[in-house]
Automatic annotation (TrEMBL):
It comes from Necator americanus. GO terms for biological process: axon guidance; positive regulation of cell migration; semaphorin-plexin signaling pathway. This is Sema domain protein. InterPro entries: Ig-like_dom, Ig-like_dom_sf, Ig-like_fold, Semap_dom, Semap_dom_sf, Semaphorin, WD40/YVTN_repeat-like_dom_sf. PANTHER family: SEMAPHORIN, SEMAPHORIN-2A. Residues 384-450 form the Ig-like domain. SMART domains: Sema. Residues 1-312 form the Sema domain. One of its GO terms (cellular component) is plasma membrane. GO terms for molecular function: chemorepellent activity; semaphorin receptor binding. It comes from the Eukaryota. PROSITE patterns: IG_LIKE, SEMA. Belongs to the semaphorin family.
Length: 520
């Protein structure tokens, strides 16, 4: 995995900054030897005008305390250092078990090796274990890093990493966030232990290490905080992050099922919070080999046979205002009770005005009376309550009815909590399924999360007047009735279009302040 030195958005950024004599170079995790048995973090010799100015640099491949069969997943240029993320066989277990741990290693870009010992060897090499775990009496560790990406903020650098348990029948995954300020504190510690496989000398200055230096942070680890979206039977193999003004939107791909998870992640005070926004299956024609993002626009997936493009907005999947409004790419149309892409919806409207309510929810109010509701996960969508309308679902006795919901939510029937029975089932994505419905199931069903209503359905089981047809003649009778209703609907729709053409006009002020009519 090569360091992507040209990945900066700023074209004026000098990515060779920090190297000896400011010379450009590539830092990489590689394998050498006849059978690829030697694992190295390597920088080639630095050249200037065709002459070697500084020798190449590497780790010691004959000592597995440096690197022990690593599998590199990412490398990044951060200030004066280069960071490498990988998983390797842990030597802490003393060879009794073949445990896999996730690691992060850091080298100084100005490192030119030792003067006598460790010549052409990193003297600034440090590494530590990545700790992504659920705290408990017996912590649940996500030990295997699968993917990692870097996010720059105004005051820090964050790394989002997807981690998983061992690939067994009960595999689980999660996303953890690692902040460089915590890592700097960790690597600046000078601790040693008789039980530690590594000793950290008292000085981190390059060129002053000894041949016995094993530059790791002892038994310390870099804590990734509370895991985000821990999930069973999932392996997040790819990750991308879109940085928004109030939040970071995480896109994580389950490589086994090609299911894309979208998560909002934001800081509130000193704590970080998250909400799952969306989960959808993408069709890319095979296993995904790479995933990247065009911020604010699209996700790109590369398989063996094609490159696929998907919009970041999955607005059509949201059945309610509460779910739609908190998605940073969507807005809820109050009049139509439907979810649309945020920029596209607003850009197609005439004479709209953006206002902010007392709760911080952004509302786009059209002069003609149409209204859009937009918010984000950290503020919620309180404005949706006033405009919420239950979605009516009609069913026949004996039918199966599916209500869409969201994970980590509960369902209520006429205000009472719904529990699972032989006829009432819950789906993995938070939906509700009612089997073999009857007139006793007529009620209002609410999906509620954190005390807030997300979506509301009204179930009407047509039992008395229109029972489900059982014979061919009954089906034909129903067909004739529906044909009549369809004709009536077409006539009413035509009348509505005519009325809209006559009446749907807005008063628009032009650049000179003149008021005139403009047809929408």
């Amino acid at each position: 995995m090569l360091l992507r030195r040209n990945a900066s958005r700023d074209p004026s950024a000098r990515r060779e900054w920090g190297n000896p004599s400011e010379l450009p170079s590539v830092y990489s995790g590689i394998r050498t030897g006849m059978a690829g048995e030697n694992h190295l973090i390597y920088r080639p010799a630095l050249m200037e005008k065709g002459k070697e100015v500084y020798s190449s640099m590497r780790t010691v491949y004959t000592d597995n305390r440096w690197l022990n069969e690593p599998q590199f997943v990412g490398s990044f240029d951060v200030g004066e250092h280069v960071y490498f993320f990988f998983r390797e066989i842990a030597i802490e277990s003393g060879g009794l078990e073949r445990n896999i741990y996730s690691r992060v290693a850091r080298v100084c870009k100005k490192d030119v090796g030792g003067r006598v010992v460790l010549r052409q060897v990193w003297t600034s090499f440090l590494k530590a274990r990545l700790n992504c775990s659920i705290s408990a009496q017996y912590p649940y560790y996500f030990d295997r890093i699968q993917a990692v990406t870097k996010v720059e903020t105004s005051d820090d650098t964050l790394f989002y990493a997807t981690m998983s348990t061992s690939e067994t029948a009960f595999v689980s995954s999660a996303i953890c966030t690692f902040l460089t300020d915590r890592k700097l504190e960790l690597f600046s510690e000078s601790r040693s232990s008789a039980l530690s496989p590594w000793l950290l000398p008292g000085s981190n200055q390059s060129g002053l290490a000894t041949a016995s230096s094993r530059r790791c942070a002892g038994t310390s680890s870099w804590n990734g905080g509370m895991p985000i979206v821990p999930a069973r039977d999932v392996i997040f193999t790819h990750i991308a992050v879109d940085v928004r003004s109030e939040q970071n939107v995480i896109f994580a791909l389950d490589g086994r099922s090609n299911t894309l998870w979208k998560v909002s992640h934001w800081r509130e005070g000193s704590a970080w919070k998250w909400v799952e926004l969306e989960r959808r299956t993408i069709a890319v024609g095979g296993p995904v080999k790479a995933m990247t993002i065009l911020p604010g626009e699209f996700l790109y997936f590369a398989s063996r046979s094609a490159v696929s493009q998907f919009t970041l907005a999955g607005c059509a999947l949201y059945p309610s205002c509460a779910l739609c409004a908190i998605d940073p790419y969507c807005s809820w149309h109050v009049a139509r009770s439907a979810c649309y892409p945020r920029e596209k919806a607003h850009g197609q409207s005439l004479g709209y005005d953006v206002i902010t309510s007392s709760s911080g929810v952004r509302i786009t109010q059209l002069i003609c009376g149409f209204r859009w509701i937009s918010s984000w996960a950290g503020r919620g969508s309180s404005e949706c309550t006033a405009s919420a309308k239950p979605k009516t679902k009609t069913a026949y006795p004996g039918d199966t009815v599916h209500f869409h919901g969201t994970s980590d939510a509960v369902w209520k029937r006429d205000g009472n909590l719904v529990t699972s029975t032989s006829r009432v089932l819950f789906t993995n994505d938070g939906g509700l399924v009612l089997m073999n419905v009857s007139k006793e199931d007529n009620a209002d069903y609410e999906c509620v999360a954190n005390g807030k209503q997300l979506v509301k359905y009204r179930l009407v089981v047509d039992h008395d007047e229109c029972t489900q047809p059982r014979s061919l003649q009954a089906y034909k009778s129903c067909q004739r009735e529906w044909c009549k209703k369809a004709d009536q609907y077409k006539a009413a729709l035509a009348d509505w279009h005519d009325a809209k053409k006559r009446n749907a006009q807005c008063l628009v002020n032009d650049s000179l302040g003149h008021v005139h009519n403009r047809i929408e």
